[in-house]
Amino acid sequence: MNAMKIITMTQDEFQILLGQEIGKAFESFAEKFQKKSNDEYLTRKQVAELLDIDLSTLHSYCKTGKLNPRGIGRRVYFLRSEVESSLIKLRN
After folding, report:
1. Backbone angles phi, psi at 85, to 5 degrees
2. How many Cβ atoms are within 10 Å of 38's Cβ, its own excluded?
3. 92 residues of the chain, pLDDT tens digit each
4. Options 3.40.50, 3.40.1000, 3.30.300, 3.90.105; CATH of 41-86
5. Are the C-beta atoms of residues 67 and 79 closer than 8 Å to each other?
6. At what angle do helices 44-51 and 55-63 cross, to 10 degrees?
7. What is the tally of helices (H) and strands (E) in the chain?
8. pTM of the prediction?
């Protein structure tokens, strides 16, 4: 059980402490949502999850040329930048 402590401090000290804590929280938040490198290779499963599609749909996109897979042996990979650039803007 944590014991409660009452601490007295000036308003300036409180503002400094609060600013430091907010800064730490913001840095933590920014790290989570920092844009990933576009040169990152993704697996079929990762691309399907990213696009919220089934693996059979992903296979269809590859066959029709909508996505450009790369392979090493039996493994298939996609460049994140190419997957993101394959998305088209819809008219509103």
Report:
1. -75, -20
2. 12
3. 788 889 899 999 999 999 999 999 888 877 766 665 557 899 999 999 999 999 999 999 999 999 999 998 999 999 988 998 888 765 65
4. 3.90.105
5. no
6. 100
7. 4, 3
8. 0.56
